[in-house]
User: Fold this.
Amino acid sequence: MDFGYTEHSHRHISIVSKRAGEILEILGYPERTVELAKIAGYLHDIGNCVNRTDHAHSGAILAYNILKDMGMPVEERTEIMMAIGNHDEQTGTAVSDISAALILADKSDVHRDRVCNTNLSTFDIHDKVNYAVTNASLNIDSKERRIILKLTIDTKISPVLDYFEIFMDRTMMSKYAAKYLNIWFELLINDTRLL
Assistant:
């Protein structure tokens, strides 16, 4: 989907689905909980087909009804609905283990591959910051109970301060999501620990 924002298509949802599952799997959650996190990750941006504004809430309702029609038990589809409905930093917060994993997975997908606009001269700050990220990884250390978002930012394209200007809410949401899972969130940018 391209709405003039960053990419929200198959690439993004595949990364988020995989990461959400990996977070819970590495932390030792049951296989079915891991699977539900993957499903939530895959469906989390479905609300964008209605409108970018309030997409988390419309997506939660859409996903709930789709999963109901597919025969998923009410408890499981409710878990997924809650996770999707709480993944946006403007209106949500971690309310369950699945929602916390979804938030961490979603907010960690920062990369130049997400920039839909290919005309550098017309980049807004979101395009510029995402395009400046040449490498991004999310590492989970279950022994140390840490999750580390490691970014490489090309400061010739965007200063690190611009990252914080647009991503501070997402960064704080990730920190609280990690806390919900009883782990510590760390942010490394250009090998400098910032959180």
About this structure: The domain at 10-193 is CATH 1.10.3210 (Hypothetical protein af1432). The chain has one domain: 10-193.
